[in-house]
Amino acid sequence: MGQEPGAVTITEVAYRPALSAPIGMDVVDFAELRARGRRRGIDLSAPQRPAFHHLIHVRPGSAPLEHTVDFTRHVVPPGGWLWVRPGQVHQYAAGPEGPWEVADGVIVIWRPGFVPDDPPEVTVPVRPAGPRARLVDLAREHLVAEYADMGAMPLEAHNKALRALLSVLLLRLAHAAPGSAAAAPGRDGPFERFRAAVERDFTRTHRVADYAAGLGYSTRTLTRATLAATGTTAKAYLDARIVLEAKRLLVHTDLGAADVARHLGFTDPADFGAFFRRHDGRTPLRFRAAARGTAP
């Protein structure tokens, strides 16, 4: 398939830690990550969809870091943090002298499951202040020191320590974020199970009733749990996930609208077009043109 003007693709990035890294986790400086990207032929300013977590920290005294995650542009300030999860499409600011090239910081990357329990989700940059900032910094220092001291304990014990220390850092950051006083849903609660099922099956079924039946809940229970966790209904949450994937594919690949529809489980492309217009207000191709800055 020929590329249309402005077309780009998503770079799928597998987890490949440094040779000295423990299994499942790595700590890498911005400068080293830029060097890795050059060695592997990965343009870090292009859209990427890594299969692992990124916890990005911009050091105090650095220039701010511009970063786009799923069509939302963030500016991570000096001393700030941004957590990018597996499957999200993100990209660093472009340009030879751009923010990514001049910013100074460190990134913690880890495979899904390395940390037993994810803390509450934080989707915006966090800049801890006051006593919380010191506690976050202590957690970071302890994690980095343990990471660098791999030979001091057996590898299994070293990994256990890293899991515990990363958990502490993530919890500190979650509770330094705006609105952190809200209780997080339980890991095995209805919403968490629904969210996991949606991630697995949203290209196969678009009916909340199917998820409820598969999980052993009523649709009312799923809706109530999703409202409590996200402020939206279960159907709105499911539809938003489908729309997000549609936008990723429309902007970052050259798939036609009919191919995107089939990928997302729509048997009729017209149904997909109507679904997309209902949620975005534009046809899929007009959305693509606007996002890419090209003629429709």
Question: Which structural class is indicated by helix and strand composition?
Answer: alpha+beta
User: How do the strands line up in the largest sheet?
Assistant: 2-9-4-7
How much beta, percentage-wise?
5-15%
Oligomer: single chain
| Spans of at least 5 consecutive residues with low confidence | 1-8
* Count of DSSP strands: 9
What is the distance, rounded to the nearest whole angstrom, between the alpha carbons of the first and last residues? Answer: 18 Å
Evaluate the radius of gyration.
20 Å
Total helices: the number is: 11
Output the helix-strand order. EEHEEEEEEHEHHHHHHHHH
Share of helical residues? 40-55%
Q: What is the mean predicted local confidence, pLDDT? A: 86
Major beta sheet, specifics? 4 strands, antiparallel
CA-based shape: globular
